[in-house]
Amino acid sequence: MLQTINWQARAKSVLMPNRPFIDGRYVDSVSNETFPCVYPGDGRLLTQVTSCNEADVDKAVRSARKAFDAGVWSRMAPTDRRRILLRFSELILANREELALLETLNVGKPIANALNGDVVSAASCIAWYAEAIDKVYGEVAEAHEITTLVVREPLGVVAAVVPWNYPMSMAAWKLGPALATGNSVVLKPAEQSPFTALKFGELAIEAGLPPGVLNVVPGLGHIAGKALGLHMDVDCVGFTGSTEVGKYFMQYSGQSNIKRIGLELGGKSPQVVLADCDDLDAAAAGVAAGIFANAGQVCNAGSRLIVDETVRDALFEKIAAHAKSFTPGDPLEAATRMGSLVTQEQMERVLGYIDAGRAEGATTLVGGSRVRLETGGFYVEPTIFDGVRNDMKIAREEIFGPVLSAITVKGFDEAMEVANDTIYGLAGAVWTGSIKNAHRAAKAIKAGVVWVNCFDRGSMAVPFGGFKQSGFGRDKSLHAMDKYTDLKAMWFAH
Ligand code: NDP
């Protein structure tokens, strides 16, 4: 099917939602301000999108609060909420092509990935939480001659503030558990990627979600995002984004109403290949996909390769071969495996890191340049740095681009020391043929997720999130529902 669609032609006629979605419909803004949305595949202006200000955010929060207090969703029978969220998931799939196209136009990811990855994963996430609604139980605690119930209650109004790298999935990871537990939500997408979030608002209403339960406010972080963070009537912020902005949200919380905060932040994840790795082909494929998928714009990207000196040469050769299959191409072509970066600014940031790597003495084994200039788009080729020390900028800071920093080590202990020498703790991986070292490394790596002889495997049943400055709280799995609920203890005297 994918091969037969002329995506370029479809892109010319697709409707791009660009106004806030509040109280069940698209509305004019109070702000009257807009920001431009550019297609990073060729740099052309797509449309102007409303930039919500404090007054627009306040309208959305009021709508969410009204719906919550009225109980139209929060007190709806669990089976009815399940049915509506399942329908929402079905509608996401039914609108798969349009959503994928909108996502690719916003962020420049390959259309095949958007269609088969992002849309499907967002729909599955909503369905998973829909199914969970009537399958989670409270507790009855033992107390002397008194009945004690421990139940979870929704918080009220949840703000979801999300990034641009996987706009639909990141939104779904917040919407699924927040809505399933009965909250109302105000979603603020990243300024680069408002289209699919707005479309989600529309589809949720079509599915039967009462107006006001899901509002979407496109806008700038330092205006709309900040307004949500500081709002006295927002009970919780589910945030995914950079560590820097995550710290702002903690401040906003302290400056306002001590709202709950869940933070999924950045990373500098180690891919450790030990001397006893017995499948260098698999390791090379995992390392390459781990940094070049989504053009490296992945929070858990395996951006630091920590390789034992005994296997490095053989491994480098294999990774370099895999890198070729990620040569950037037109995001709207079905066969493209790596598209553009999200914006010109992001491309310049990545190229700046490449310059910094060279200036600090690392050498580029592969890549290192902007490509496809003639398209007007923002493309950087897969890049591998050798001779990296862990104190270099390209080993310490999150580049968020297709740039692998390879650090050579000697032995297990040095590998673990380097792996953990980072402010981040989102994820890590180890490639080894030894069951003993597999267990030792899985315990030693200080991160919320550790993969052994694989990379970036995921399931809705398994929590995702980080240690250290990669944040706290978990997305996915039943654990995510904890973030959007509070425990209430009830004591019933006999
Ligand atoms: P940012 O932190 O810049 O932005 C994330 C969101 O926060 C956006 O909606 C943004 O709005 C908003 N924002 C920006 N500044 C402020 C502010 N001062 N106050 C309130 N809100 C603000 O991240 P990016 O969008 O650049 O995404 C990349 C980052 O996200 C990377 O660091 C990556 O590691 C992380 N990430 C983490 C994941 C995880 O699960 N741990 C998953 C995916 C990404 P605007 O767009 O308008 O600036």
Record the SSE blueprint.
Layout: H1 7-13, E1 21-22, E2 25-26, E3 34-39, E4 44-50, H2 54-70, H3 78-94, H4 96-107, H5 111-132, E5 139-141, E6 146-154, E7 157-161, H6 167-180, E8 184-188, H7 195-207, E9 214-216, H8 221-230, E10 236-240, H9 243-255, E11 260-264, E12 270-273, H10 280-292, E13 304-308, H11 312-324, H12 344-359, E14 363-366, E15 370-371, E16 379-380, E17 383-386, H13 393-396, E18 403-409, H14 411-420, E19 424-425, E20 427-431, H15 435-444, E21 449-452, E22 467-468, E23 471-472, H16 480-483, E24 485-493
Parallel strand pairs: 7-8, 7-10, 8-9, 10-11, 12-13, 12-20, 13-18, 17-18, 20-21
Antiparallel strand pairs: 1-2, 3-4, 5-6, 6-24, 11-23, 14-17, 15-16, 19-22
The structure holds NADPH dihydro-nicotinamide-adenine-dinucleotide phosphate (NDP).
Measured on Cα atoms, how large is the radius of gyration? 23 Å
Return the average pLDDT rounded to an integer. 97
> What characteristic shape results from the CA principal axes?
globular
Q: Show unreliable segments.
A: none
What strand line-up does the widest sheet have?
14-17-18-13-12-20-21
What small molecules are bound in this structure?
NADPH dihydro-nicotinamide-adenine-dinucleotide phosphate
What is the assembly state of the chains in this entry? single chain
| Ends apart, CA distance between termini | 65 Å
Indicate the structural class.
alpha/beta
